[in-house]
Design goal:
By secondary structure, the protein is an alpha+beta fold. The protein has two domains: 292 residues, Up-down Bundle (Outer membrane efflux proteins (OEP)); 124 residues, no CATH class. Helix content is 60%, strand content 23%. Strands 2-3-4-5-7-8 form a six-stranded antiparallel sheet, with no helix packed on it.
């Protein structure tokens, strides 16, 4: 029994230890994790799912639809007047029961905006009026009906132009949302990296200042330095210790912020591996603009707005002129006193109806609606032209900035190396008494600022790179367009 309890305890401990195993993520791994399982990614997927199901509903509307309709046995009871043979009127009780069923297949006609329906139906009614009673069956074994608007706005025709564009735009917006996640995770990732670096710098500075203060105490006791230098080194130590405590809290806050974005548990043991270099990219601003025009959803959105404006102008023109409705049907029908005879020797039935409407005088309402739609179309065209130029300019300068930041990362890395080396030299010279403590602290500040500047420049480059991906929908590392992930 003891062995079983010990084994169970060891298993639980192993599982708990495994669950708390340290997880190390690179920048790309963090982005991939966020795109796969974060709350932001799930919201983006659900938003796209709505558009996807809406598009499927639109596509299904063009296919034949089968429907069954009818009424359950109904009952009507009342006292009604009945004319007699002698000219008098008698009030008698009337009881009626009735029911119907109809099966229909309908198919819209996208080109013309009409609809064709093929149906079959059966009706039954039973009447009891005083002492008189009868039952009647009426059947329509086959009925073909056509309804066709004439000279009217064709909603179905325009939907065939706009709905595929809306669906393509929804796909692009989904990709755009995932690219926004990459930008957000990049900023959070480097916030952790910078906070981690600030913590390490503060801890290192606290240790160095502790050594310097101890050395300064010894020098002060033998009279080699003034009390002011001793107090300055002690103050630097206290400030370094305070900075180390603050930097530790700031690091934990930044780390928890990254965990929240990655949808990781609060107590997950997470560390990051920062990128040590930037990829060698050849970014041509003109090529970036061309890729943005080809792939970016904002350009498709502008095109959709133009089509919608044209649609409303066509609607206004059609609604202000002559319009008609054509309704025609051909089929078979029959009636009988018994169900068995309701389908025997069916008779032909035809129906044709043409209604029309001609606006004669509307006090200029039709013309006003057309002019309003025309003005809106021209306004959208001008606005779209300006927005296209602004989008081109945004992409062009973002590409230039990415190129510049790629060079600045190398410069910042070199400056970091030089500042670190200078601090080591200054520290060694102070230890042998060649420089005063002010020069040492200046070298220390320059070292810290150079390291922070390097990290910030690295962050600016990666943020700019992922921003350029979002603006162009193009992966410059693989030289391929950014496409929606497989669902």
């Amino acid at each position: 029994m003891r062995r079983l309890l010990l084994l169970a305890w060891l298993c639980c401990f192993t599982i708990a230890a495994y669950g708390q195993a340290q997880r190390t993520l690179t920048l790309q791994e963090s982005i991939d994790l966020a795109r796969a399982s974060s709350h932001a990614a799930e919201i983006a997927r659900l938003t796209f799912d709505q558009s996807q199901w809406n598009y499927r509903s639109y596509r299904a509307g063009y296919r034949p639809s089968l429907s069954i309709n009818g009424s359950l046995p109904g009952l009507r009871r009342s006292i009604e007047s009945l004319d007699q043979d002698d000219g008098s009127v008698a009030y008698v009780e009337r009881n009626s029961t009735f029911g119907s069923a109809n099966l229909a297949i309908s198919q819209p006609i996208p080109i013309t905006g009409g609809e064709v329906t093929l149906s079959s139906g059966l009706n039954r009614i039973t009447n009891e009026l005083g002492d008189i009673g009868f039952t009647q069956w009426q059947s329509a074994p086959l009925l073909l009906r056509l309804t066709q608007p004439l000279f009217q706005f064709n909603e179905i025709k325009w939907d065939r132009r706009t709905e595929p564009m809306r669906y393509e735009l929804a796909q692009s917006r989904f990709v755009e949302d995932l690219e926004d996640i990459a930008i957000d995770i990049t900023n959070r990732f480097f916030a952790v990296y910078l906070a981690q670096m600030n913590r390490d710098i503060a801890t290192f500075n606290a240790a160095v200042n502790d050594t310097i203060f101890t050395l300064s105490q010894g020098r002060f006791e033998i009279g080699n330095i003034a009390e002011n230098d001793l107090l300055q080194s002690e103050l630097a130590l206290l400030n370094a210790q305070s900075d180390a405590a603050s930097a530790t809290i700031a690091y934990q806050a930044a780390l928890q912020d990254l965990k929240l974005a990655l949808d990781l548990p609060y107590d997950a043991d997470l560390t990051i591996t920062p990128p040590i270099a930037v990829p060698p990219l050849e970014i041509d601003p003109d090529e970036a603009v061309a890729q943005a025009r080809r792939n970016r959803p904002d350009f498709l959105d502008l095109e959709l707005q133009s089509v919608e404006a044209e649609r409303e102008l066509t609607r206004a023109k059609r609604n202000s002129g002559f319009s008609a409705n054509l309704s025609a049907s051909y089929g078979l029908n029959q009636s009988a006193d018994a169900f068995g005879f309701a389908y025997r020797d069916p008779l032909n039935q035809q129906q044709f109806n043409l209604t029309f409407q001609v606006p004669v005088f509307r006090w200029g309402q039709g013309k006003a609606e057309i002019e309003e739609a025309l003005a809106r179309q021209q306004q959208i065209a001008r606005t779209a032209d300006l927005q296209r130029k602004e989008l081109d300019q945004e992409v062009y300068f973002e590409a230039l900035q990415a190129q510049q930041l790629q060079q600045q990362v190398g410069i910042a890395a070199k400056a970091d190396t030089v500042a670190t080396r200078r601090f080591e030299v200054a520290k060694n010279r102070y230890l042998i008494g060649k420089i005063d403590i002010t020069d040492l602290f200046d070298a220390q500040r320059e070292k810290d600022n150079a390291r922070r500047a390097y990290i910030q420049t690295m962050q600016q480059f990666w943020t700019s790179y992922f921003t350029l991906r979002r603006l162009t929908f193009y992966d410059f590392t693989r030289q391929t367009p950014v496409t929606p992930p497989l669902r």
